Amino acid sequence: MAPGGKSAGGKAMKKSGKAQKNIAKSDKKRKPKRKESYAIYIYKVLKQVHPDTGVSSKAMSIMNSFVNDLFERIASESSRLAHYNKHVPLP
Question: What residue spans carry the Low complexity bias annotation (predicted)?
Answer without folding.
Answer: 1-11
